């Protein structure tokens, strides 16, 4: 869904402006994430639960694709020729840093569970 999001939101970013599209994609991601937390369980609504979850994950994927492409273009347009590459690199660094922090947090949280008690 990310390529589709980049395609769709990239078109609108050219027409409406990158800043507006970035706001829309961030809101769409937030709404999708919040609704995922509200989805009832399979025991409560049956097969509709995984279907709703899959649809909301697709919404997240579309918004990520639009956000990523618009963000890169936005940053490159507002950077000067002397610092454009440096500014755009922060977007990729933020993703890598977030993945690293998530991995470290997961390792720290699960490490006490892996210790065997005698």
How would you sum up this structure in a few lines?
This protein is an all-alpha fold. It is built from five helices and no strands. Helices cover 86% and strands 0% of the residues.
Please tell me the total number of domains.
2
Determine the N-to-C terminus distance.
48 Å
> H/E element string?
HHHHH
Write down the overall mean pLDDT.
87
- Based on CA atoms alone, the radius of gyration comes out at 19 Å
Secondary-structure class: mainly alpha
Helix tally equals 5
**Low-pLDDT segments, ≥5 res:** none
Largest sheet: none
Polypeptide structure, described:
With 118 residues, the protein is mainly alpha-helical. It has 2 domains: 2-78; 85-118. Helices cover 86% and strands 0% of the residues. The chain has 5 helices and no strands. The chain has helices spanning 2-16, 18-38, 42-45, 48-78, 84-114. The longest helix has 31 residues, at 48-78. It is flat, with a radius of gyration of 19 Å. Keywords: Cell membrane, Membrane, Sugar transport, Symport, Transmembrane, Transmembrane helix, Transport.
């Amino acid at each position: 869904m990310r390529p589709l999001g980049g395609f769709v939101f990239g078109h609108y970013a050219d027409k409406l402006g990158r800043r507006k599209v970035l706001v829309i994609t961030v809101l769409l991601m937030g709404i999708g994430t919040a609704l995922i937390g509200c989805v009832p369980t399979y025991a409560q609504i049956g097969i509709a639960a995984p279907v709703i979850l899959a649809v909301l994950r697709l919404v997240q994927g579309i918004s990520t694709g639009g956000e990523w492409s618009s963000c890169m273009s936005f940053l490159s347009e507002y950077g000067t020729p002397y610092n454009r590459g440096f500014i755009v690199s922060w977007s990729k660094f933020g993703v890598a840093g977030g993945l690293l922090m998530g991995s470290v947090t997961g390792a720290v949280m699960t490490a006490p569970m892996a210790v065997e008690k005698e």
